[in-house]
Amino acid sequence: MLYGAPDREAAWHRLSDYWDLIVVGGGITGAGILREGVRVGLRVLLLEQNDFASGTSSRSSKMVHGGLRYLYNLQFRLTRQSVCERETLLREGPGLVERQSFLFPSYEHDQFPMWMMETGLRLYGWLGGKWRIHERLDPLEVQMMSPGLSDEHLKGGLRFYDAQTDDARLVLRLIREGVATGRAVALNYARAERLLRDEQGRVVGVVVRDVETGRTAEARAAVVINATGAWADYLRRQVGAEPRIRPLRGSHLIFPLYRFPVFQAVTFPHPDDGRPVFVFPWEGVALLGTTDLDHDEDLDREPSITPQEVAYLLQAARAYFPALGLDERDVLASFAGVRPVVRSRREVAPSKESREHVLWDEAGLLTVTGGKLTTFRCIALDVLRTLRRRLPRMAAFDKRLSALDPAPSIDEPLPGFTFRETLRLAARYGVDMLDFAHECPANERERIGRLPVHWLELRWAARHEAVRHLDDLLLRRVRIGLLAPQGGAQYLPRIRALVQGELGWDDIRWEQEAASYVARWRAHYSVPQTVEETALS
Questions:
Q1: How far, rounded to the nearest angstrom, does the alpha carbon of residue 188 sit from its chain's CA centroid?
Q2: Predicted pLDDT of residue 289
Q3: Measuring CA to CA, which residue among 268, 266, 322 is closest to residue 111?
Q4: Contact by Cβ (8 Å): 320, 39
Q5: Does residue 309 come out as left (phi exceeding 0), alpha (psi in the -120 to 50 range) or beta?
Q6: Peptide bond into 213 cis (omega under 30)
């Protein structure tokens, strides 16, 4: 149970307990702090105003990587941290974090010639403890590895390896492992409405509002951590702090693999501004991204890709894969997320802003923001080190502990599953999923169409994973909303038969949830009706 209690009501009534940490924000940073906090003996309450991972942490580029481009911004510390964490997660998260090959095609008149890229890759490898992580490819090899890639002025290419993940499932795994210790509670749709202060003006807790019922309660702790990412300034204003966050939007397009057949990641500079663009296979689709723009809209409104961003990404795809003839009609889905970037003291382009995390202690409110998906554990440990004096009973860090709980040993696959599929289920949902799958009827062990998703995953998530709304289930627990045409609307009748009883919804509630989900998908995950055929300026 993701709440860390038998049900939501039991979790809500535990708000009155006294906590060592209250973590506001249920994305990767908050989940990482919860996981590391319970390791050192702390009692942790995590609050998320929407659904777990519903902000930036389900809308990332899905990469667990060192950020090769950060080397060109001279962010060596961040790159080294990221590369080391990538290797740790690859070792400890098989089935959830997977190695991904990357291909850099090289063309005449490129801004960065091949020798410069090769120098960068040598440094990239050295930061991770390896001198050579890449191989040179001739033009024919590049074309064989990436069908449809333009061969005009192609000189060759370079191949190296990073990793990819399902970002929302990684967040959910951290929360699940944390609350399983019995020392943590995690509540979604629970908004930290107001900070509580003591007589000296120090933050000592929060007023929590149940977003669904409107009821409120007070929760108190030795430390309140603001881990709300791009939303960090909301709580900081309550202690009189000046805004420091520069929200940046990154948007992506998803294509069926038959229309955009890629077998490893391919990265290339955009023909207009030279920004790196990539496409890679993820969960049976092709993911193309990303943009990097100032996001000036209300952060409480769900972000969406704009027509200009669609045109920008399609322009890059057409320039490097002209034979595919891609247009907006080929797009399966889209998504946009807002990055929590700390504003520089001087005006710089969005892509030049630092991605390193920062900590601010303001009137007892500890804010942590910035950073990358890959470095969530480094961020969490920095937070806990900062709190050592305020939490003297905190146990010492054990550097031998893994980032994730050990994966179960799988001697043979589940009936009807391959070894890979069995490992995937255990890595995403926990070892108890394997017993659950054994008990499910054969038709629930089938895949949903051609998706790498099985029907039983929907029932499991509805029963065990704090699903409050249909979009929680289809956009974050099981990623049908990103992988199937029209967000999986064709599957809704069978999904209803599987999960309506598990969720305790009557027919009226189901119809409301289904209509709301379809409307949300069309507004925020489809392609805008008017796509301007002009690139971003």
A1: 16
A2: 92
A3: 268
A4: no
A5: alpha
A6: no
Alpha helices by DSSP H, listed for 186-271, are 232-236
Residues in the chain with pLDDT < 50? 532-537
pLDDT tens digit sequence for 183-240: 999 999 999 999 999 999 999 999 999 999 999 999 999 999 999 999 999 999 999 9
Q: Which residues of 185-197 are buried (b: 16+ CB within 10 A; e: fewer)?
A: bbbbbbbbeebbb
Structural tokens at position 259: 């229309």
**Number of C-beta neighbours around residue 168 at 10 A:** 27
Instruction: Kindly give, in sequence order, each residue whose CB lies less than 8 Å from that of residue 380, ignoring residues fewer than 6 positions away.
Output: 29, 32, 33, 35, 36, 37
Pairwise CA distance, residues 196 & 186, whole Å = 20
Helix (H, G, I), strand (E, B) or coil at 75: coil
Instruction: Reduce the secondary structure of 320-360 to three states and give it as a string.
Output: HCHHHCCCHHHCCEEEEEEEEEECCCCCCCHHHCCCCCEEE
Query: Would you state the structure tokens that stand for residue 372, as one six-digit string?
Result: 């990358």
* DSSP string for residues in 25-38: --SHHHHHHHHHHH
Residue 316 token pair: 């890059």
pLDDT at 103: 95
Angle at 212 between CA 207 and CA 214, to 5 degrees: 45
Structure-token pair, residue 130? 């390896």
Instruction: Report the C-alpha gap between 395 and 96 in whole angstroms.
Output: 29
Beta bridge partners of 246: 341
CA atoms of 473 and 480, how far apart (whole Å): 9
Nearest CA to 531 out of 279, 324, 309, 243 is that of: 309
Of 110, 132, 130, 109, nearest to 119 (Cα)? 132
Structure tokens at 457: 């995953």
Whats the size of the chain, residue-wise? 537
Residue in 246, 272, 230, 269 with CA at minimum distance from that of residue 349: 246
d(CA 42, CA 31): 14
In the block, residue with structure tokens 């009137």: 363
